[in-house]
Write a structure and sequence with these properties.
With 126 residues, this protein is of the alpha+beta class. It has a single domain, classed as Lipocalin, CATH 2.40.128.520. The chain is built from 1 helix and 8 strands, in the order αββββββββ. The protein has an 8-stranded antiparallel barrel. A hairpin with a 6-residue loop joins strand 5 and strand 6. The longest helix is centred in the N-terminal third of the chain and has 21 residues. The protein is globular, with a radius of gyration of 17 Å.
Length: 126
């Protein structure tokens, strides 16, 4: 009986840890190094989306849906399969994201092959 209780506690705590890591992308993120844009990432159904919550150059960009369709890959500890839009040109790119060991959010925007893409970095806003 004791082993069953310990196993249940272990499995329950593991599931809580996975949910925390999966949802760690949610929140507000400031683009670095320019610090000219804040995006708010949130969960909607089974995917993660992002919208602009502040922009230095243009207040009319606030609310613009910039990220869509990101899904968490538990094996790779990344979010992928999404799209990102350029608010100025309206162009859409494939997107993937990961949180680096220093806590920085790295978003990769690419068309076709990932190694040709561009990376943008964000730091969490408190």
């Amino acid at each position: 009986m004791r082993q069953i209780v310990l196993l249940s506690v272990f499995l329950f705590s593991y599931k809580c840890y996975a949910q925390t890591e999966q949802g760690s992308i949610t929140g507000k993120w400031l683009k670095t190094p320019k610090e000219d844009l804040i995006i708010e990432v949130y969960k909607s159904a089974d995917e993660y989306k992002g919208k602009i919550s502040w922009a230095r150059d243009s207040a009319n960009l606030v609310g613009f849906p910039i990220l869509e369709g990101l899904k968490y890959n538990d094996r790779k500890k990344t979010w992928s399969g999404g799209t990102i839009r350029n608010p100025k040109s309206g162009s859409t790119y494939n997107a993937s994201a990961q949180i680096r060991s220093n806590g920085t959010l790295e978003v990769l925007a690419y068309k076709g092959m990932k190694f040709i893409g561009r990376k943008k970095y964000f730091k969490r806003v408190k």
